[in-house]
Amino acid sequence: MSMIEAIRDAHDVMMARDENVVVFGEDAGYFGGVFRCTEGLQQKYGKHRAFDAPISESGIVGAAIGMATYGLRPCVEIQFADYVYPAYDQIVSEAARIRHRSNGEFTCPMVVRMPVGGGIFGGQTHSQSVEAIFTHVVGLKVVMPSNPRDAKGLLIASIEDPDPVIFLEPKRIYNGPFDGHHERPVVPWSKHEDGQVKTGYYKTELGKAAIAREGREVTILTYGTMVHVALAAAEETGVDAEIIDLRTLLPLDQEAIEASVNKTGRCIVVHEATRTSGFGAELCALVQRHCFYALEAPIIRVTGYDTPYPHVNEWDYFPSPERVGEAMKQILEA
Amino acid sequence: MSMIEAIRDAHDVMMARDENVVVFGEDAGYFGGVFRCTEGLQQKYGKHRAFDAPISESGIVGAAIGMATYGLRPCVEIQFADYVYPAYDQIVSEAARIRHRSNGEFTCPMVVRMPVGGGIFGGQTHSQSVEAIFTHVVGLKVVMPSNPRDAKGLLIASIEDPDPVIFLEPKRIYNGPFDGHHERPVVPWSKHEDGQVKTGYYKTELGKAAIAREGREVTILTYGTMVHVALAAAEETGVDAEIIDLRTLLPLDQEAIEASVNKTGRCIVVHEATRTSGFGAELCALVQRHCFYALEAPIIRVTGYDTPYPHVNEWDYFPSPERVGEAMKQILEA
Amino acid sequence: MTKEKSKKPVASGHEKSSPQKLSLHVPEPKTRPGDKPDFSYVRISPVGETPRPALDVSAIEIRDLAFGMVRVLDDQGEAQGPWAVELEEDVLRKGLRAMMRTRAFDKRMQRAQRQGKTSFYMQATGEEAISVAQQMVLRKGDMSFPTYRQQGLLFAQDFPILEMMNQIYSNEKDALRGRQLPVLYSFKKAGHFTISGNLATQYIQAVGWAMGSAIKGDDKIACGWIGDGSTAENDFHSALVFAGVYRAPVILNITNNQWAISSFQGIAGGEATVFAARGVGYGVPALRVDGNDFLAVYAVSEWAAERARRNLGPTLIEWITYRAAAHSTSDDPSKYRPKDDWEHWPLGDPIERLKQHMIKRGMWSDEQHVQAEAEYDEEMRVAAEEAESYGTLQALEHRPSPAEMFENVFEEMPPHLRRQRQEMGV
Amino acid sequence: MTKEKSKKPVASGHEKSSPQKLSLHVPEPKTRPGDKPDFSYVRISPVGETPRPALDVSAIEIRDLAFGMVRVLDDQGEAQGPWAVELEEDVLRKGLRAMMRTRAFDKRMQRAQRQGKTSFYMQATGEEAISVAQQMVLRKGDMSFPTYRQQGLLFAQDFPILEMMNQIYSNEKDALRGRQLPVLYSFKKAGHFTISGNLATQYIQAVGWAMGSAIKGDDKIACGWIGDGSTAENDFHSALVFAGVYRAPVILNITNNQWAISSFQGIAGGEATVFAARGVGYGVPALRVDGNDFLAVYAVSEWAAERARRNLGPTLIEWITYRAAAHSTSDDPSKYRPKDDWEHWPLGDPIERLKQHMIKRGMWSDEQHVQAEAEYDEEMRVAAEEAESYGTLQALEHRPSPAEMFENVFEEMPPHLRRQRQEMGV
Ligand SMILES: Cc1ncc(C[n+]2csc(CCOP(=O)(O)OP(=O)(O)O)c2C)c(N)n1
Ligand SMILES: Cc1ncc(C[n+]2csc(CCOP(=O)(O)OP(=O)(O)O)c2C)c(N)n1
Ligand SMILES: [Mg+2]
Ligand SMILES: [Mg+2]
After folding, report:
1. Is residue B238 domain-shared with residue B310, that is, in the same domain?
2. ipTM beyond 0.90?
3. Which mutation among C202, C230, C265 tests ligand 1's pocket best, with the greatest number of atoms within 8 A of CB?
4. Quick count: other Cβ atoms within 10 Å of Cβ D397?
């Protein structure tokens, strides 16, 4: 299964199990979404449970909040993460705080899905990684899968979660794992172990990281597409890196992180978002605080640069296996 | 001069010097703003240069962007930072990127002012500190003064800046320095050295930190109201702390930070915003990276908790001199 | 329809101007402090003039009604015209009582704030009819998404005032555990949504809630509330778009009390048009109503609620009223409007007008009114005393535990919050 | 006006229903793939019927015009009615040429994308009249805030196509240094604002720009552009609010081409009303116009521009047209609408209609038309060849230097960006 199919399947499983699950978004109804993640749901579950929405991200989220407080479990799509900003107020000021401010009288079980990341020549408005503007918001959970198996399990867990979840889908790996080698042909998920997705209902617990590769020399904290880039870097450099796929950024699996860094004594953080105040900063802050005495070298961040995402110079911006590999070498020499 | 008067004065100086400077916001025209920071400007410069705006933060910023690209220098007020989220899209997707995406054909010299921070029993919607959602945005400058003298100089520099500036005003110190001792009477700025504000035009350069207190034992990185809390903590504990008032968060005065931490070997970050993915995370990430070998203990963050800002329990949330003092002791013992 | 062929087409550019200096128009209220109040700008229709359309009317059909004004009570206190409904005596009594108790409560809480017992308060003086009468047409299970000035919704239900006061005092019995600013209530059992401090955000949520009810084949409706000033917020637009597109069973109320803190309604767009007129552009039938006329509010609310219940979709209602008091305890209106504005408001005081009608109908008297006023004042005094015994902002030792801060951020407290709570030492 | 006293007030609750199951209405286009195209839902007025108001008209006065449709060209290609303006031959020739070159350019660039020479392209097929005719009434210094489908603004000015192509190819001569997605042009010298990839954001910016012109006592006007789908975005609302409140000298265009990617205009609110009707609720005079009628577009644009120039404020115009081609090179419309929809569009093809009119007036012939078509195709081929010689997405070695990424983030590069550029090794 591709990641698109896995996401579609998660919707399908949950809509079948729970008639309170409803799905809407721009082009998400009849057509099934520009990435086809909701294809067929309208036909199967009816127009009142899967429908097209006006081009109004804040309206989509605002309406979903109303539905969630009514008692439904809306799972809505923002066409690209780059377009989530109009909905930011509804997410931050409302969804994230309704339970707290009403002392639990009203709750907001809602998933806001959106494709993130670049590598598709989408320019600055189809490539952004927005996790850090959500990880600072109290009351939200933030999830980003790196493969179809997790995507399905995490999405099901998110839909069942009693609180609002921001579900970020790395679009570059919708169809196959991408390790940054854009000059090579894409290998489809069907050829990959993590593309072997179980049918039916299963959950991947939120708040738990996965170890994408065990290793002893350096810990790499990463998520989404960059998991595959980091794997490639490890393979190409021969560095025995432990690669942690965080999967959930909020709440974070601090235990897994500390265990690994305490073991390796070195840590690299890799993400595609711009560096300053990115989620990598939080990872650095936590690791230096909790693994200070284990650290043998400063934590290095390999990230997108602090510029808008370029169009034609995409591959100079995209954190490549080469850049990650160099950071590995540098940190081992430190 | 109080900080309110200093901000008003900065407006006045710039409106007199440059007729392209225009000011608007909710209640900011005839009435002069709910905090009175723009009082008298409409009467002095006319309705077309200082006026009331509809209650539409995104409209205010969107219109300001249009004016800035036309050739004006709008300086607009968001009534409380807690209400800036509807304008987030215009700031992030537009103001911050217009120069870059047009390769300098269009520019956006604009200041967005807003009161931040708590300590006034304002509850969760009149108390937030929003700096971190702006420091992650490429193309913005982010400024927060801690006293009237800087407020005036920084605001003038911000209005003259060729790029968009987010200007955050810690409302708790509008009328006098506040060190967290809410049980004591407020001392007005007129009794404080930094309340002695020069008349007329002067600038405080963006991107330069100030040393609020020299010291040798530990570096405290902070800004806004927390500068005064940190000063109180140093005095009360007797710890010889070096307190850096960052003043501009983006671009950051990394040199000043490194010089201090390399000297003291210890670092505490203090801010009022919630902790996770707050701006303190970026400070930790930079300090651990660039001062790794000088650090004798992990960097500690003293911040607001990861909960919405409470109403009645305000003083349990607000980072107090006691909490900062304890962090000082802890880091010296480490 | 065919048109005769115009003989000679008009030459292009016949209206072309030579370059001309533009200037910015900034709306200004007719009167400022020191001026004589002047409400000639308010479009007021004669009582009884605005017709009552069929329930299944379309937005386009009744587009002109947005410029009228539904009014029932005339100057003599008589009910007139197509919207006049013969309300049972107990309905009127209940309405009057709820409005009077709202006002008495406001008076008491305003005073408590002045005494430093709480941080903040907001009165609804002069606007009581709107929320009170609308609540009276709602049914159990319907949900209102109020702003901070719809306390009348609670009084119309005889909601326990002690619970409201405890919230205002953030005391140990505050159901919201001292988290929220005073008056930002949440009372689910009363169909009263948790109020946000952010303006307008809940308008679209009301629409979403109503869509939820429709999706589930339920029979519950929702009511959104917004102020004249807040109609400028973007959420107003998304609410109207979604309500119109999906025909959500929702009443969308605009309380036009002429002011938004210091800004008059012209700054929100009320100078060149009326807010009700926005409805037609979204396909939402809209009415403009005398909001200080209890009978008109009741009748129009009932009409809109019926439309919603019969799956006929949303209704937008602009209620014309006046914010008689200050915006909040932080505000001083004498800085920006004539001190005696309220006394000259052409649509009067909703309590006085209903009182007059009831006296006319022989159900009420001036004496009873004075007596009721005293009774409600006393009721509020006693209740406040009790509430104060559970703590106020001056008696912080009674406040909810700081540990409460960490509760209900999520259903289950994640490890980092647990750690932070320990850090706090609670 | 007085009304006779209604004899017996209607009893309350006379319309009250017993609880009834609600259901959600989801708008659906009349036709889907496989269906016979059906455009009976489009409200079309007879040619010449919709009157031409005075320039200083108010939104309320002309509120009914939003439901009409300004049309000038009849089926025989004759200009009719109050909006018919006698345009000079060279104006018509210029307009036809610009529309034809727009279409030829689109064809060539669409093909370039299919050949992998660029990542993306968007055609304006069927909508060329709107941007071309509007640009022709603008003056130097006016500023348009276009979406990605107003390339006609550039062709109406004979803008150098090579500069456009270089941007599309992100090549070494791209003025935007390969930063922007193809077609998101910025050409200040042509009064063409930098296009955002985010929908609707620039509508309010156009209003702000126009306010700036008014604040400075300048004589420049602005034009905002938005699609039918994008009117649902919040910035549509703030633009209308600000334009109405401050009477900004701006033309607010809505291009209703019936589709927003796969969503028909009913999903944006066009089912129960028309988009032009939104104007009156914001105090902005509004017209609805046949957007495939070059003469109507020209006349109404001129009228609106004159209003703006005389400080009479904003105008909202809904242009009715049809998106004949796919949304973009990433889209396949046969998935969601009948394949032959465009051939049945009742308002025809703007190029064909102007051609017919010109032939009628003896200024043009079928032969000239065919010849012109061939000429423009050839022009585009040659230009594309030259542009490709400066690089394409298939020849990345010609692209602007990666170091350019760091330029113009700020006027002056701050230290952290300098450090990152060094890190990149450029
Ligand atoms: C998003 C947002 N912006 C600004 C404010 C500050 N504010 C609180 S009330 C108010 C005025 C609202 O006026 P209106 O909508 O007319 O309601 P009224 O107070 O008259 O009932 C303002 C500007 C806010 N609470 N939220
Ligand atoms: C804020 C935002 N949301 C979503 C999109 C994705 N998107 C691009 S074009 C489009 C459809 C726009 O339709 P319409 O406004 O009718 O313009 P048209 O394409 O028909 O010219 C969508 C949804 C976007 N670019 N920006
Ligand atoms: Mg108001
Ligand atoms: Mg469209």
Report:
1. yes
2. yes
3. C230
4. 6
